[in-house]
Amino acid sequence: MSDNELRYAVLIDADNAPQRSLGGIMQEIAVYGTPTIKRIYGDWTTPNLAGWKKILLQHAVTPVQQYGYTTGKNATDSAMIIDAMDILYSGRVDGFCLVSSDSDFTRLATRLREAGMKVIGMGEKKTPEPFIVACDKFIYIEVLMKSADVGKSKKSVAANAKDAPVKAPVSQAVPDAIIDFISATIEDVADDDGWAYLGEIGNLLVRKKPDFDARNYGFKKLTQLFESLGCFEVDIRHNAQRSGKLIYVRLKRP
């Protein structure tokens, strides 16, 4: 079974996810597989969650009611964890997408991976490091929301002026530590001439650092990130067997 055929359970902590991010979350998880179970947890009797109704209907996400039994204690986390374990033992999914910025789900992510599940985390940039590294891959919600806003902007420009060019998103400075991290990863999988296949590089980068994403630095694709840095060579080779292209990268040599 290929990665994009995997079945995912998408479990969302409504107390720790912005409402307007749901569309981006559902589009993102579709890249990795099919969301066969979609649930969101919270106390829906409270006014602060009232705005969720319309957007949940648009994406067919099932709200799960969890009352707050004690002031200052979050019962939503427990309900989500119990459901996750029930789904795990049902054998109906191949992976989980846990949407929260709460470190309380660190042990859940670890346990699901121990059971052989693929775990994708999504949360805001304030998410504690332990939860991030407990996931196979972690995606920042701010990045998803920014991508959605750029998409809307492009549609708006196209609608108002079909011939007007759309400006590309502005890239962000890539820290030296990240460049060193990328360089070391390329060396880990490079051949004798220093070339490494882009697919292998991308997979290893995420295994080492689950929150690594070219979009964090303003680039849609990893290739664009490499080309912008100036310290890497990018070689696009034709694949005769699949009538496609293979992309290789290496550190620039003197």
**Order of strands in the sheet with the most strands?**
3-2-1-4-5-6
The average pLDDT score comes to 87
User: What's the total count of β strands?
Assistant: 9
Low-confidence region ranges: 150-161, 164-170
Strand content: 15-25%
Percentage of residues assigned to helices: 25-40%
Task: Walk me through this protein's architecture.
The protein has helices spanning 22-32, 53-58, 75-90, 106-114, 129-134, 141-160, 176-189, 198-208, 222-229, and strands at 6-13, 33-42, 62-65, 95-99, 118-123, 137-140, 196-197, 232-239, 244-251. With 254 residues, the chain is of the alpha/beta class. It is elongated, with a radius of gyration of 20 Å.
Write the layout of secondary structure elements.
Elements: E1 6-13, H1 22-32, E2 33-42, H2 53-58, E3 62-65, H3 75-90, E4 95-99, H4 106-114, E5 118-123, H5 129-134, E6 137-140, H6 141-160, H7 176-189, E7 196-197, H8 198-208, H9 222-229, E8 232-239, E9 244-251
Parallel strand pairs: 1-2, 1-4, 2-3, 4-5, 5-6
Antiparallel strand pairs: 7-9, 8-9
Summarize the structure.
With 254 residues, this protein is an alpha/beta fold. The protein has helices at 22-32, 53-58, 75-90, 106-114, 129-134, 141-160, 176-189, 198-208, 222-229; strands spanning 6-13, 33-42, 62-65, 95-99, 118-123, 137-140, 196-197, 232-239, 244-251.
